Automatic annotation (TrEMBL):
Keyword DNA-binding: yes
Phylogenetic classification of the source organism: Bacteria, Bacillati, Bacillota, Bacilli, Bacillales
SUPFAM superfamilies, A to Z: Winged helix' DNA-binding domain
PANTHER family associated with the record: FERRIC UPTAKE REGULATION PROTEIN (PTHR33202:SF7), ZINC UPTAKE REGULATION PROTEIN (PTHR33202)
Sites where the protein binds Zn(2+): 100, 103, 140, 143
CDD domains membership: Fur_like (cd07153)
Family assignment from sequence similarity: Belongs to the Fur family.
Cofactor(s) needed: Mn(2+); Fe(2+); Zn(2+)
Keyword annotations from UniProtKB, A to Z: DNA-binding, Iron, Metal-binding, Repressor, Transcription, Transcription regulation, Zinc
Gene Ontology BP, a term: regulation of secondary metabolite biosynthetic process
Record-given protein name: Ferric uptake regulation protein
A Pfam cross-reference name: FUR
Natural source organism: Listeria fleischmannii 1991
Length: 149
């Protein structure tokens, strides 16, 4: 974790920002909860344990800055809540998600499933793709099993 924080600190520095204690607390919360897709409010509640003097507005600003620097991705699973997902280091693209409409579980797919689609779009429409997002909404295996019973 410390090595990742150092690299994020370098990213901030390269963009003329500092890793303040409040920003570091926010980054630590994101790293510690990497699989959870936390909302800003959830990040804030956890940050308060590490840096009690941090306000909600500071957490929002930090998350927006980290989004701008592509350290995190801001995502919405259709529930009206923005969530923050730590971008995998070295990832060319945002990873994909499977969202269960029954239980709300979210599963991540790290494979880039759209390479062929990107090639077609670039060739046919001469569109230079920088990133893409793909979210499948459906029923997870556990909920399907419960429905069959």
């Amino acid at each position: 974790m410390e090595a990742r924080i150092k690299r994020i600190k370098a990213q901030l520095h390269d963009a003329s920002y500092k890793l303040t204690p409040q920003r570091e607390a926010t980054v630590r919360v994101l790293l510690e909860n990497e699989k959870d897709h936390l909302s800003a409010e959830e990040v804030f509640l956890r940050v308060k344990n590490l840096a009690p003097d941090t306000g909600l507005a500071t957490v929002y600003r930090t998350l927006e800055l980290l989004t701008e620097l592509r350290v995190v991705d801001k995502i919405n699973f259709g529930d009206g809540v923005s969530r923050y997902d730590l971008r995998k280091e070295g990832a060319k693209h945002f990873h994909h998600h499977l969202v269960c409409l029954e239980c709300g579980s979210v599963e991540e797919i790290q494979e880039d499933l759209l390479e062929d689609v990107e090639k077609i779009i670039e060739d046919r429409w001469h569109f230079m793709i920088k990133d893409h997002r793909l979210t499948f909404q459906g029923i997870c295996a556990d909920c399907k099993k419960k429905t069959k019973k």
